[in-house]
Each structure stands twice: as C-alpha cells, then as structure tokens.
Amino acid sequence: MRRNLLPLAAALSLSGCAGVQSALSPSGAEAAEIDPLFWTVTGISAAVTGLVTILVAIAIFGPPAWRARLAGGWIVWGGGIVFPVVVLSGLFVYGLIVLQAGATRAGTAEGPGVTITGKRWWWDVVYTTPDGREFRSANELRLPVGRAVAIRLESDNVIHSFWAPQLAGKLDMIPGRTNVLTLEATEPGASRGQCAEYCGGAHALMSFWVVALPQDQYDDWLEREAADAREPQTAAQARGRELFLENGCGACHTIRGTGAEGVLGPDLTHVGGRLSLAAAALPNSRAAFAAWLVENDHIKPENLMPEYGYLEPDELDTLSAYLESLE
Ligand SMILES: [Cu+2]
Q1: How much distance in Å is there from the Cα of 196 to the middle of ligand 1?
Q2: Among 199, 226, 253, residue at a domain's last position
Q3: Cα separation of 37 and 97, whole Å?
Q4: Contacts of 194 (CB under 8 A, 6+ apart)
Q5: How far is the CA of 244 from the centre of ligand 1 (A)?
Q6: Centroid of ligand 1 to alpha carbon of 202 (angstroms)
Q7: Can you give the pLDDT at residue 103?
Q8: Range of 241's domain?
Q9: How many domains are contained in the chain?
C-alpha cells in the first residue's frame, strides 16, 4: 500500500508544477527573474537537509571515532551558528536583489496602461486606446508581447490581490490606494491568474485569464474591443437583446450601444469573446450562459447577481444566444 501511495503523492504534487497557472513556467519578464530564486532556494535547502541527515546518521550509527569527532564544541559553533548565519544571510541578500525585479521594472512601461479593480468577486478592467479613448472590459487581461505595460491595481471593497503567476509576483489591491504592477509578456499565449488574498466566500472562484498577443493582433483586438457591441445577426439574437433590456439586466450591466449602462456587474459589450465566464468560474459557452442565469448563486455562492429562475427555457436559450454572439 505504502509503496503505491508514495509515488502517487509525488506525482500529484509535481503535477502542480506545470500548466496554465504555474510560477514555474514563466512567460513574463518578472516571473522569469523570480524563477531562479525558487530553484536556488530549493537546491540549497535540499543540500542542507541532505548534509544534516548524513551528520545525524553518523552521530547515531557511525563508528565511535567519527562520533567522538562530531561531539566537539566546534559542531555547535560551526554548524549551529556560523553555517546558518552565512547561508541564510547569503540567501537573504540574493533574495533582496532578485525581488527588486518588480521595482526596477517600474518605469519601463510605455503607453496608457490598464486599470484593474478588484470587485466581489470579479475584475473590472479599463483600457485606453492609443488615441485616448477609455473603455471597460472584465475578467480577462490582454497584453501585447514584448512591451511592458503598467497595470494600476485598485479595489473599492476589501483587499484583493492580483496574481498572474506566469507573468509576475502578486500585488495587493488595497481600497483607497493604487498599486502599480509592470507586466511584460515574453511569449504569446493564454495563462490563468487568481485572486491571492482571501476576500470572502467565493474568493477561490475569483480567477481570470491573461492573453498575450503579438503587437499587431493586440492592436486589432483593442480596436474591436473599444467598439460598441455588434448588432444582432439573427431574429433570435434580436429577441435576446430585447429580453436583456426587458429583464432589467441593464441596471447592473453595460452593453455599449444598447442603452444598458449599469456598472454594478461586469461590462458585457464583448462578453462572448472572452475565454471564460464569471471570473473563470465557467467556460464560455451558450450552456454556461444559461446555467449562470438560473443558478449563479449555486455556482458562485453569495455573488451580487440575482438568479433568473423564472425565465422560460426558450427565453433562456435566446438570451444566451444573444450574449454568446457578443464577440
Ligand atoms: Cu480574493
């Protein structure tokens, strides 16, 4: 039994080392600087553990001559004071140098940057186009590859923390304060992030995607995202838009170009184009829209959106088809 469990436990813990939300697969400049810190500290810790284990084994099982040598006062002074002070001071200074990474990166960002506000339990994201138009999005951050971008982090409720492990270390979002994190994606692709400061019941479901795009694709995307919502293409989608407006969704949500201008919930102008729904609690699909509308409190307990259990199945389907079409 134990022989089977050990490798299983090791495999399980190692499986956390790769994937879309791992500080150990850096795809950002700051994360790439932090990565060696992890391996250096892990390597030195392993070496020290190995050394101590050998000395303890000698002290218990070794030949009398070796044990006598270990019994001297030097082992207390050398192994108990000098060695730890030297090793830990060295690691401390090395850590300080590496952790400056974020600070030294500040000021390298060009352009208007992005403002992300921690909400209960989602992320409000405000971009500015090169010609100065500001617009909102939510629950996803897109970045151009190879360019440092200043991300202003804020909160209007409790403390949250913005952590995109593949890009950089985490930074807190503190009410009444603006913290600036400079992110520079070094390769294109999508990775996941997570709120890293307990902020209430559904904190674990407050995640997001970061999508790094080559500069020209990013520029195209920014232009499309800044535009108003696309018009319904089918009768069903048009009916879906009516249902959206009739059911009061616009009190909390904005869909630019429809007259819905609420700001209590995520901006839905281009919700169909995002990788996930409800801060990565659900995939982005028509079924997920429908599920969210009728049982969002089950999916994300105590979130601030009411459930719409009274919608008829065909209404639900039409409304979801409209939302899905908002790319
Ligand atoms: Cu949180």
Answers
A1: 6
A2: 226
A3: 10
A4: 21, 163, 165, 206, 207, 208
A5: 29
A6: 8
A7: 65
A8: 235-325
A9: 3
